[in-house]
Amino acid sequence: MECRPGCAACCIAPSISSPIPGMPDGKPAGIPCVQLDEQFGCLLFGLPERPAVCGGFQPLPDVCGSHRDEALWLIGELERLTG
Known about the structure:
This is YkgJ family cysteine cluster protein. The protein has helices spanning 52-56, 61-64, 68-82.
């Protein structure tokens, strides 16, 4: 599965505990990463400053669903169940 352009559910729904440039304490669940641009693209994509957790996230149908709203819900539920 390929990432959907403009989705960014994985950059919004989960909490990230590792530091992110501009978010030294990571980010809470449901809060967009400060590194998202206006089109929901990652400003750190391909750069060494991008956190390993972000680079390790792989799009999967069970996590990303069939559209952005479903991905936000699925990832949010995973966060709620494992947080």
